[in-house]
């Protein structure tokens, strides 16, 4: 209880403290059933007590006077539009009679709301990209805190929030909600995480606490990852086609090398046939010579046979003279084939190396693709 003699000092103290109380406060002094003095915090805009007000018999203040004890009452939001707590302390005179009461009415703030001005500036510095913090009651913004790197100038204390604001969903569901918003809302992509604030007694939702962070870096990272993935996919397709071409070239080179080897073998056979022709030519010439000798012995009777023998020797000479030309041609073919064979072997080796390099590139592309997927997963978590 408070002595009536201390009222003046109590008034002076209340005048000083009124604007120091977080959330605001209103003090009132009642004599009998009438309020005769009040002091409001400048931040508190309501009409709880006013000078000349006649109190109801069932009011906390009059009950405290009658019972000569300090009483506390919690006022629901429906009465003044805000949850209040009223404390009434009896004032006694020199004869210990309760002649009035000293009352205090202040908003019933959630612990997060009470501590907001203390922790919010510190929390705002802990986000590299910046952050915007805000508290709401059931209809309007009550506290805001921006960071140096990020601010939402369209959200101000006292402004009502629209139904599409995430806090509305939190209030209606009573559950934490998260949502990513594109740049059309606040100028840049953001992530909004909103949490319900519950009354400690009734467990009803009395407000929300929202953390809004810019996601421009994450969105750009996601876009870069997506573009890189598309590019890698295109390169991978081209590499696959190149690998298929390299395999086909390798197969063709193998067939070409096999064909060249066959030509070389045929050249060897031609040389053998040429030698056989030369032997036949020598034998034919010898036969022609013997026939000429026999025709000379026969005299006039063998003259016709001599002509034939002479023609046989000419054919033999012609055949024999052709053999070196054929051999020269086959030797030239063999030389060309040998050169082509060496080039073919080089191409075959190169195609094998190309196929191996293509496989290595394909493996590298697969690794890069996996890294892109992981990069995209990281971007989604930011």
TrEMBL record:
<dbReference type="InterPro" id="IPR004089">
    <property type="entry name" value="MCPsignal_dom"/>
</dbReference>
<dbReference type="GO" id="GO:0016020">
    <property type="term" value="C:membrane"/>
</dbReference>
<keyword id="KW-0807">Transducer</keyword>
<protein>
    <submittedName>
        <fullName>Putative sensory transducer protein YfmS</fullName>
    </submittedName>
</protein>
<dbReference type="Pfam" id="PF00015">
    <property type="entry name" value="MCPsignal"/>
</dbReference>
<feature type="domain" description="Methyl-accepting transducer">
    <location>
        <begin position="215"/>
        <end position="382"/>
    </location>
</feature>
<dbReference type="GO" id="GO:0007165">
    <property type="term" value="P:signal transduction"/>
</dbReference>
